Amino acid sequence: MSPRSSDAPQRVIDAAAQMLARVGLNATSIREVTKLADAPLGSTYHHFPGGKQELLARATTMAGDKVEALLIELLKSGAVQGLQQFLALWRERLLRTGFRAGCPVLAAAVEEPVEAMPSQPRAAAAEVFARWQGHLAEAFVADGHTSAQANGLASLVIASVEGAVAMSRALQDIAPFDRVAAQLLQAAAPPA
Asked: How many domains does the structure of the chain reveal?
């Protein structure tokens, strides 16, 4: 088996996350994902017997894991500095993609699948958001916030960043993101 064939499942998951970020859950098709991944369509169904729901749940989890690892690393320098770096990375992504790429986790969270079944991608997104919130809350507690304040700030950060990304994409303008980022950094400042 060639190395190209053996890494096909991972390429398909990566491509699915890219498509989620750009076109959302319902517009992401297995056929288009396999084209983007340069993977055989038939083997995709072999590796993801649960079909599109399974594939998009795995893509959501993978995307969430990558952000989680990044957050853990950035927050080692403190909550405010880590948040500032995280916001800078999101800002750069919006500009680099011409506002075409959002967050695949948000896409999985907000869209109902066309099929009338429970959403595996949405369940994966809920788990991802909970993990992100936990890491942010821990960092805010380490900076001197109470547990209740830290949990509230963590929720505020996630909801605000996701909303600011969506607004900037809709308006094709970085200004909403910049305004939200400035407010988040103020809110996250350690208590006096």
From this structure: 1
Helices (H), strands (E): how many in the chain? Answer: 10, 0
- Residue 159 is part of a domain; what is its CATH number? 1.10.357.10
Which pair of tokens denotes residue 53? 């729901």
User: Which residues constitute the domain of residue 130?
Assistant: 3-188
Output the six-digit token pair for 61: 């989890």
Rg for the chain (alpha carbons), in Å? 18
In angstroms, the Cα distances linking 8 to 45, 47, 65, 192 are 12, 9, 19, 52
pLDDT in tens, 58-80: 999 999 999 999 999 999 999 99
- The per-residue pLDDT for range 157-191, each reduced to its tens digit, is 999 999 999 999 999 999 999 999 999 999 999 99
Q: How far apart are CA 114 and CA 124, in angstroms?
A: 17
